[in-house]
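A note from the maintainers: we've had questions about how concatenated examples are separated. There is no special marker in the raw files; a new sequence line simply starts the next protein. For clarity in this README we add a label.
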Amino acid sequence: MKTQKNGLFTCIAEKLFHIKYLEGEKFSMGTLMKEIPDMQNFIWSVSKKNFVALLPSSNGFQLPSTILDSYQMSSSRLEEFLKAKTNQIYSISEAPGTLHLKTDGVPIHNAASPIRYNLEEGQFMLSLNKDSSAFSLPELLIHYLISYNLSIIARYETEWWAELMKTMPNDDYPYIVQFLKISQAKVPFLIFEWIKSERFHS
C-alpha cells in the first residue's frame, strides 16, 4: 500500500494525530500486522517476538536487558531513542538482567510511538521492529490501513478472495480472521481512548 497526498488516510493522520509526513509512504500487510501487539502470539515466526512487555514497577516499567541486544544500543542510547520516538521523557537505569524505565507519565494508547497497548493482556508493550516503516505509526492508523486493504481485495480481487475461502487452512486466512477478531474489540477501545485524551487536553 502506498499513501496518497490527498487521501483519507493522510487526512486522518493529520487531523487526529498531527502527522504530516506520510505522503508516499509504503506499507505491506505483514509489516502492519507485526505492529499489533495483540497478534504477538499468532504472528508468523514463533521464534521471533515482535514485542516485549513493559512490566509495571515503581515510577515506571521494567524490561529485560536483552532489549539492548535487540535494538543494538546501549542503555543511554535507548533512552534518547525512546524520548525521540515517544515525545515522553524516559530515564533508564540498569540492574542485573533488567532495565528500569522511569517516565514522566503513562504511555498514550494512540501515540505515534513504538509503545503500544495489548488489550487482551492488559499491558503496554514495546515494539522490537525498529527498522519497520510502521514502527511509530499510531495503532488506530494501522487498523485502518489493514481494513482498507482487505476491503479493496474483497471488492476488486474476488477470484483471490474466493480461492482463499476455499483453501482456508493456508497461510493468509488464519491471520485475516485473527486480525478481524482483534480489530472488532481494539478499534472501539482505541477510539474511546483517543476521545478521552482529546477531552483531557482540550
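[label: protein 2]
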Amino acid sequence: MFGKRIRLFKLAGFAVHIDWSWLIIAVLVTWSLAAGVFPHSVPDLATSTYWAMGVAGMLGLFVSIVLHELSHSLAARRVGMSMRGITLFVFGGVAEMDDEPPSAKAEFVMAIAGPLASVAIAAAFFGLSRGGAAWNWPAAVTGVLGWLGWINGVLVVFNLIPAFPLDGGRVLRAALWHWKGSIRRATRITSSIGAAFGVALIVLGVFAFIAVNPIAGMWYGLLGLFLRGAAQMSYQQLLVRRALEGEPLRRFVNPDPVTVPPDLALREFVEDYVYRHHYKMFPVVEDGELVGCVTTRGLSGSGIPRDEWESRSIRDVMQPCEESNTIDVDADAMDALSRMSRNRTSRTIVTEDGRLAGIVALKDMLRFLSLKIELEGEQDRSQLAPQVQDAAEDMDEPDGERPPHERRETADAARR
C-alpha cells in the first residue's frame, strides 16, 4: 500500500509513520482552509491569519487521525493482536496488523474503537469551540476548533459506512462472521460491498468532474479507486492466509542454497554471484557456520566506492542474522510470507538450531499457492488465482536456487 515513508515518533509503544503521499493532503488541506473555508466562516481577518489557521487546522487533522488509528491499535493490543504501527497516507491513516483478528468479537472491538475515539474528539473540539466563544477567545481560534469538531464528525459518518475496509465494513464483517461462523464468507460479502461503494464513488467523481467541481470530482474518483482496490486486496490477502496457514515451511525450503564466504572480495561477489545467480540476498557461511547475510541493497547503501570493491570484502557489508532476515525451519509458511511482506524481501534465510537449513523463496510459495487454489479453491479460484499466478510470474527472483544456465540445460534435457 505504501511507498517510501518516514518514521515520526513512537506513541504508546506504536511507531507512527507518514507516507510521502500524506504531504499532498497536508498542502491541499492547508490551502483549502486558508483560501476558502476560513475566509467564508470567519470573515474580515488578515490573509496571514487565514494561513496560520490553515496550518493549525491541518495539524489538528493530523493529530485527530493519529488518535483515531491509535485507538484501533490499543484495542487490538487489548485483544491480543500484534500491530506493526500506524501510517498516515494520502487517504487518511491505517493501523497495520500482522494478522487477521482471532475472533468476531476481537474484530468488533478493534473496529468500533476508531469511530468512538473520533466521536470523543469531535465532541471535545465542539465543546472547546463553544466554550471559547463564551470566554471571548479570538475568532481565529474558535474557528479552527469548530472546523476540527465538524471534520471529525464527518470522519465518523464516513468511516461507519458498512463498506470494507472502512470501520463500518469491519463492524459488519464482525456481525456476519459471528452469524455465519466464517470469516471468509463475511469478508467476501463486505469486500464486495466495499468494491461496489468504490465504484459508486468513481461514478460520482466522474459526474462531479464534468458538471460540478473538477477538483472534488478528481478526489472522489481517486478515493473510489483506492477503496475498490483495498476491498479486493483485503479479500485476496485473507484467501492467501487461509491457503498457507498450517503448511510447514520445510515444504518450501531449498536445503542447498548458494552461499558466500565472509572474506570474498566485493568485486568477485558482484561478478560471480549477483550477476551469475541474479539473487539479491545470500547467506554468509564461514567454516560451515552461518555468520550473517549480504544483500545488494546493503552493498549499494554501504557507501563503499566501486574502485574499492577489489580491496573490501563481504565482512564490510554483511548483516548479522536476526529476526528480520531469518526464520526457524519449524515455523508456519504464513509466518514466513508475513515476514517477507513486512520486510519487503523475496527470500529469507531458514535456520535450524542456529545453523543454516536453507533458503525459502517467495516465488516458490506463490507457485504452491496458485496450484493449491487451482486444485482446491473452486469458489475463490476466479478471485485470486490469476493475481497469484501473475505475481509468481512477475517475481524478480529466478526459479529455485539453480543458476540460469543450469535451468536452461534442464529444460533442454526435458525436451529431448
